[in-house]
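Q: Please design a sequence for this.
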């Protein structure tokens, strides 16, 4: 069970509830609705991972010399102070508060604006009483939010005149007014005027973009601390990923006020930290126990979530998968990991049959047969037909039948269900395309090979 928990944790990190870089498909045929993934708080490996260092801090001075963040800032909240910490971080609250909430955020990320009401409750409950202070660090996802960096620069330029936080609040509250607009800077100038700033100085700062190095340094600090998407928070030593509820934040604040710390992360085995790599003791299966095809060193990994009784899953397997295997799997560009989703009456037993065939090294051969023959076994005696398929594949039929009859692989299928639910799979077929340590795209529904070619070309091109 520990291995299951570890994989779910790793997948949660990959697809945390919030904004993350991804590739957008040109079009989606037969789309399946997906739900936002709601993650639970996770724990950073070590408190030292988020300890501020002078080398990592952007500090107060900035390149160019003309634009320096004011040491004292307006908080925009009655009775709440704001300014710069000794390491140059922008804070709001009592600088000596026992609990610090450090937020990594993207001004254009919709999840970051969505968490704003929760933050306002925290201000009322904890910041105004001096128990908590907020620190804000930029983590713009430039490849999916083209105005995020400009907005970060605008907030910092307002900070030159001591109004970072009022501009911060305005940018989030009015996100829909400027997000996606090429001339967003004009809107930012309007906000500066409304806040009573010296607009000429503000515009010169915007044009000079003096805070680029600072923003990049904050991004680096976040990445080193394990941030993979926005918003992300550290409540002292506790890590919260995504736009979580007030109750989640309240619990962690209470833990921090009580002096509690996260349990140290145990040392993981190689199999637990590399769940998608081949298990040498079980050919054609990963360490986690999922059937795979392709080269484990391929630059792309595709997690397929499917059901043998799903019409468009069968269509994908029969019409698209052969081309993907020839173009991308056989050439070493793609590894495919198979995951079961149970949606229909006979989905469970068909999934068990595939896994029983997998015990004899014939998972994908049986899988293709199950898709092809679904109109027959879905309406007939499935166990008898499955047995005939096992004979066709030259399996030990007696061992296969015993495996199916006794539900030997039912737990494996159940684990797949847990994985699918945890990452927000709500329909089949669905796919997660993974590159390196992050999910770069969700692909819900059936797509023709022409669309897959575009997706893989973009992903392999370095985006």
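A: Design:
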């Amino acid at each position: 069970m520990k291995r299951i928990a570890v994989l779910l944790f790793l997948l949660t990190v990959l697809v945390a509830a919030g904004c993350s870089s991804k590739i957008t498909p040109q079009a989606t045929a037969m789309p399946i609705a997906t739900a936002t993934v709601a993650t639970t708080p996770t724990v950073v490996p070590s408190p030292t991972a988020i300890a501020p260092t002078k080398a990592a801090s952007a500090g107060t001075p900035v390149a160019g010399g003309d634009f320096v963040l004011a040491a004292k800032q307006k908080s925009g909240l009655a009775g709440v102070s704001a300014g710069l910490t000794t390491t140059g971080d922008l804070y709001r609250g009592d600088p000596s508060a026992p609990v610090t909430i450090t937020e990594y955020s993207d001004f254009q990320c919709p999840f970051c604006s969505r968490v704003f009401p929760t933050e306002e409750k925290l201000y009322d409950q904890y910041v105004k009483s001096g128990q908590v202070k907020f620190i804000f660090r930029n983590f713009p996802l430039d490849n999916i939010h083209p105005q995020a960096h400009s907005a970060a620069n605008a907030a910092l330029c307002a900070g030159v005149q001591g109004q970072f936080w009022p501009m911060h609040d305005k940018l989030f509250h009015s996100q829909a007014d400027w997000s996606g607009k090429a001339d967003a800077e004009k809107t930012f100038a309007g906000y500066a005027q409304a806040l009573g700033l010296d607009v000429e100085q503000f515009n010169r700062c915007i044009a000079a973009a003096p805070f680029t190095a600072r923003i990049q340094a904050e991004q680096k600090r976040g990445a080193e601390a394990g941030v993979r998407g926005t918003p992300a928070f550290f409540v002292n030593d506790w890590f919260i990923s995504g736009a979580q509820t007030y109750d989640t934040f309240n619990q962690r604040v209470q833990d921090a006020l009580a002096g509690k710390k996260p349990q140290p992360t145990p040392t993981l085995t190689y199999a637990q930290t590399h769940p998608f790599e081949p298990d040498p003791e079980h050919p054609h299966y990963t360490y986690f126990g999922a059937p795979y095809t392709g080269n484990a060193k391929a630059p792309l990994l595709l997690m397929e979530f499917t059901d043998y009784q799903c019409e468009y899953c069968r269509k994908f397997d029969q019409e698209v998968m052969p081309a993907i295997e020839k173009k991308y799997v056989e050439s070493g560009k793609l590894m495919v990991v198979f995951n079961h989703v149970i949606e229909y009456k006979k989905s469970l037993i068909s999934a068990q049959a595939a896994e029983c065939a997998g015990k004899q090294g014939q998972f994908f051969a049986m899988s293709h047969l199950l898709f092809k023959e679904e109109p027959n076994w879905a309406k007939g005696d499935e166990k008898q037909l499955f047995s005939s398929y096992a004979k066709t594949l030259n399996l030990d039929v007696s061992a296969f039948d015993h495996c199916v009859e006794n539900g030997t692989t039912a737990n494996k299928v159940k684990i797949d269900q847990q994985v699918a639910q945890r990452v927000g799979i709500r329909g089949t077929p669905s796919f997660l395309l993974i590159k390196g340590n992050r999910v770069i795209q969700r692909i819900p529904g059936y797509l023709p090979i022409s669309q897959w070619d575009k997706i893989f070309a973009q992903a392999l091109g370095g985006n």
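Q: Thanks. Anything notable?
A: The longest helix spans residues 311-329. The radius of gyration is 26 Å.
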